Amino acid sequence: MITPPTTSNSSGSNGSNGSSCRRGSTPALTITPEHASSKLSRHTVKVSFVEIYNEELVDLLNPAPPTERPPVTIREDTKGQIYWTGVKEVSVESTEDVLRYLQMGTLNRATGSTDMNAKSSRSHAIFSVTLKQEKWVNDPIDEDGKWVVSHSKFHFVDLAGSERLKRTAAEGDRRKEGININAGLLALGNVISALSEPSKRSAHIPYRDSKLTRLLQDSLGGNATTLMIACVSPAEVNLVETINTIKYAHRARNIKNKVERNEAEEWMTNDNPDFLRGMINKLKSEIRSLKSASTSSSLQPPSPKQQQQQNAQQQSHSHNEELQNEVTVTRERNQLVETELRQMRHKGNKKKNNNNSCAPAGVVSDMDFQHLVEPVIEEYEKSISNLESQLAMVRAALSHSDQVLADQESKITNYESMRQQEQKALTDLKSKLSKSEEREQTNEGY
Description:
The structure is a single chain. This protein is α+β, with helices and mostly antiparallel strands. It has eleven helices and twelve strands. It folds into two domains: 6-266, 3-Layer(aba) Sandwich (Kinesin); 282-427, Helix Hairpins (Orthogonal Bundle). The chain is 54% helix and 17% strand. It holds the Pfam family Kinesin. One of its GO terms (molecular function) is hydrolase activity.
């Protein structure tokens, strides 16, 4: 399954058996890729094992003598992701391979005897499982599609137990180791305190105070899913250490991580100069095609279908204007007739009131006038109704033409946006290629 980065920590006081807790939980780990390897998907799994001994990083899976091993350093990429260099990553095919390398590295860890533990861990250890999944995704723009890469990391961290020098009676190297162990745990506690209190989250988080907190930066307040196991001793003599460990874990549970999936296209994670050059040439070709298509569409005369649509739209506009003018004139005439009708009725009523003896003749005259005017009004109303129907049809046709024109403008806008995106991707690839070539030149110089 595709997962975000995941970290499992085991911590506690010296003698609480934290390392055994970590080893006991590891067999439950099963890595099952979402799809079996095929033409459309592929995956690789790698493991690495490092320890922090006296604030120095040691590769536990490198069989070379310490003097011949490359130095292990902590780096941060442009996106703020933490990674380390100089660490040997071994490809594995099964859970048995993972457990074998875990046991191999554990045997190489620094251990020593103290008054509290006959075989005490003298370092913090980080066992990492990296899962890289690649899935082929069809692209509607690119017929060939593209590979989408998902990175998942599982960090299993065994923190050395906190030590009180009075109880361990450590001397010499054991004493120095205990001081460095406690310094790393103190720095981790400060980071946990800063992250667990909302009032301090906006302030500076002291990740750089130790290499332990630097390596766990993504797991503490980052984009990983983190599980912390607090190991305590049931013995009454260890009551103080047990209480401190529980307080430590209580603060850690208040940290809120923002889990994200690490997915990217293949060109974003590939440093091969030949691959990047091929991508640049491909994008250049696509940009030229888009530019030529845009230029030809703007310079070439419109197709017969487009010309027909433009003519129909112009005719619709002109017809619409004519109908609107006719409707306006007809309404004005209708208003004039209605005004005259009201005036004549007003005069008739006036005559009726002034001369009752002429009332029958006045009534007849008024009725005759109504009979004469009504056909004219009906004719005007029919004309207005017909013109309004025609106007509605023309408006519908005009709306359709406007919609077609808007669709064409939207397509042009999408093409322009695609061209700008490809131009940006091309710029990013050129920058990445330049950095890759600079690294090659630097390596050749060495």
